[in-house]
Write a structure and sequence with these properties.
Helix content: 10-25%
Structural class: alpha+beta
Strand content: 15-25%
Number of helices: 1
Mean pLDDT: 88
Radius of gyration: 14 Å
């Protein structure tokens, strides 16, 4: 799988289906954004390997992706990743409005993300 993935190719899932841990991380992220603190930028450069291409579609014009770690690392997680579960928020740069929310339990693997609705 190389190249860009279309938003329509990403499966959707209700926010209510998230684990409590992920729900808490999302609430914390929203509160931080309201307080003026954006999470770290998510580059969306490639999946697990360079050959996979970006795991998410290009962010809309005027928007950037930001990542939120969910939970703690497990003994089986790769070193330095701080856990493999992530929320990726597409945020309008000027207004700081969250346009899309994506979630993965596989740390950026192409095809591992769901779009939360």
């Amino acid at each position: 799988m190389s190249g860009r993935i279309a938003k329509s190719q990403i499966p959707t899932r209700p926010q209510a289906s998230l684990t409590q841990e992920a729900k808490n991380a999302l609430i914390q992220a929203k509160n931080q954004i309201k307080a003026g603190h954006l999470p770290p930028v998510f580059g969306n450069a490639q999946g697990r390997t360079a050959a996979e291409g970006p795991p998410l579609p290009a962010a809309d014009q005027g928007c950037n992706y930001h990542e939120v770690r969910v939970g703690q690392a497990r003994p089986t997680d790769p070193q330095g990743l701080g856990g493999v579960k992530r929320l990726v928020l597409e945020i309008e740069a000027k207004s700081r409005i969250i346009r899309e929310i994506y979630y993965t339990e596989e740390h950026y693997g192409k095809g591992s993300f769901v779009r939360l609705i």
